[in-house]
Amino acid sequence: MDTNAVLDIGLDALILAAKLAAPVLITALVVGFVVSLLQSVTQIQEVTLSFVPKAVAAAVALLVSGHWMISELVTFTHELFDRIPQLVGG
């Protein structure tokens, strides 16, 4: 196992982590922006008003994209297991 293989696996893992985190993070970002805009317009400064909608939206995003996330993770894991013989030199 050489340095290039380790870096390649690490890069693939980081890209996968970014792809898996994107739906939840983007959803929370958009909902947070909308709630923040609403709070600015109405001048209602309530902490739970900003937290609860983001938590609900993140849960919905996980429900919607959960199957895709699991399939991507399983595919990545299968690819890693398939690469084991060439990584150990066999």
Automatic annotation (TrEMBL):
The keyword Membrane applies. Keywords: Bacterial flagellum, Cell membrane, Cell projection, Cilium, Flagellum, Membrane, Transmembrane, Transmembrane helix. Its main location: membrane. It is a multi-pass membrane protein. The chain crosses the membrane at residues 20-39, 51-70. The keyword RNA-binding does not apply. It is found in: Cell membrane; Bacterial flagellum basal body. InterPro entries: Bac_export_3, FliQ. Belongs to the FliQ/MopD/SpaQ family. Role in flagellar biosynthesis. This is Flagellar biosynthetic protein FliQ. It comes from Cellulomonas chengniuliangii.
